[in-house]
Design goal:
alpha+beta; Alpha-Beta Plaits
Amino acid sequence: MEESSSVLSGDLIQNIRDNWIDIAIILGAFIVVIIIVSIVRRRFKRFFERKIPEEKIQIRKRTLTLNSVISNLIITVAFVAAALVVAGELGISVTPLLAGAGVAGIVIGFGAQSLIKDLINGVFILLEQWYQVDDVITIGDTTGTVERFNLRTTVIRDLEGTVYYVPNGEISFLGNRTNMWSRAVVSVGVHYEENTDRVVEILEDIFDDIMADKNYKSCILERPSILGDGGVSELGDSAVVFKMVCKVKAGQQWTIKRQLKKRIKDRFDELGIEIPYPCNNVYMRNSK
């Protein structure tokens, strides 16, 4: 047995010595393919982002997703082809490995069942369009922007810049925050002594202002409104709470939400409307 292993090892080393130039050319060609595909993918991405307008954002996202999938598929095929050719140069016969029993052994031995699960789920994600590149999604406790997608993994980056690599086979439940359109939801509380009708009038004026602002009106699909037709959403411990919603273009909900909060705070301060905050009253009793 040891003698057979020695012979195989010696043959492998001899094949490397005899064919090292061809092997180097194959590996070099594979590296060149990776570089070319990466450059083309980046250029296509910039081209699509520049040529496809914001009005067709869904088409842009789908195009970027296909660009990511196809480029990764080309690299995968090139890797498999290079590996088979190198194996042939080394005198390693791949025919037994491709036999039924051999393939089953490889699947079990290297845990390829998880890989197959990732690929199948990736195909369903792509066909059913759960999300696209540049969508903001939530998977478990992680929320981030989809940077890359291929049939095996999804790469997302959160607000702090942390990159997460998620196997597609582990994605069973997710939320897409930027699919077609979104809503900006804002809650504001006022003191119980404030007149609710007056507060509603002021909020409606704020809605008019943001709709007239050329910097933001293009992002808004429907005028902001107070839930319950100007009604009160909650009678809290220290405040009367109004909840506002605004239908916006996908991905713009955070900008509009922050703008509404700022305008409400500034206008309330200007008109003397109190936004209460929880507080505790401490009473000191004199023992005498």
